Amino acid sequence: MNRVIITNNSAIIAVDIQNDFCPGGALPVPDGDAVVYSMNLYITKFSKMGLPVYFTRDWHPQNHISFKTNGGIWPEHCVQETYGAELHKKLLIPSRAVIISKGISPDNDGYSGFEETDLDKRLKAKNIRQLFIGGLATDYCVKSTVLDALHAGFDVVFLSDASKGVDVNTGDSEQAIDEMLREGAVKVVYGDIRWQH
Ligand code: VGL
Ligand code: ZN
Q: How many Å lie between the centroid of ligand 2 and the Cα of residue 30?
């Protein structure tokens, strides 16, 4: 078990918990909506402790490179201003939360919340040093966001009970988790965390 301590320099990032990544959506993660319940537990705690809460959302233009119609590997998903791009309606969004849109430029995958966004700048401005990261999908956007966070020098806690993967190939999520841990992330479930204050 990994015991993890929250500090005043901690923040949470809920990655891409959007309709298109949930059952019935354009690029559904199996059981994707099951992360909402656990993520809400984390969000509630962070919010009550006055710690910053960030959401990322995949926010693609119609001509995005990742779409099959444009030569990519994915069905059209999370097109800006569509229902599929909306955050899941049961997700708790504190009024002070910040939503980071990513994957906006047509020719970048935009898997990571740090890619062509001001996320790093915002976190550094708030003196954040430890990031709790989970959401959809473990093997794509969560992984990329975690790895970029580690490379940017943050301590990273991967929220395994608030994340699910696409698993295009069997074992992709497990491999993604191995890679995140190898690079220095710590993996937890809700019960591992010591909530001080
Ligand atoms: C994602 C595939 C394509 C993700 C986004 O959020 O993990 N996966 N775009
Ligand atoms: Zn995408």
A: 16
Among all bound ligands, the one having the nearest atom to the CA of 166 is: 1
Q: Confirm or reject: Cβ of 16 under 6 Å from ligand 1.
A: yes
Q: Is 109 tagged catalytic?
A: no
- How far apart are the C-alpha atoms of 123 and 36, rounded to whole Å? 24
Return mean pLDDT, the chain. Answer: 96
Count other C-beta atoms under 10 Å from residue 175's C-beta.
15
Closest CA to 58 of 49, 69, 66, 70: 66
Complete domains list, the chain, with CATH: 4-194 (3.40.50.850)
With a cut of 60, say whether residue 197 has pLDDT above it: no
- Please report the DSSP string for 108-176 in residue order: S---STTTTSSHHHHHHHTT--EEEEEEB-IIIIIHHHHHHHHHTT-EEEEEGGG-B---SSTTHHHHH
Give, for 46, the enclosing helix (H) or strand (E).
helix 35-48
> Is 22 tagged catalytic?
no
Is the CB of 74 inside a 6 Å radius of any atom of ligand 1? yes
Q: What is the pLDDT of residue 185?
A: 98
On the question of pLDDT at 29 being above 60, the answer is yes
Q: What per-residue confidence (pLDDT) applies to 91?
A: 98
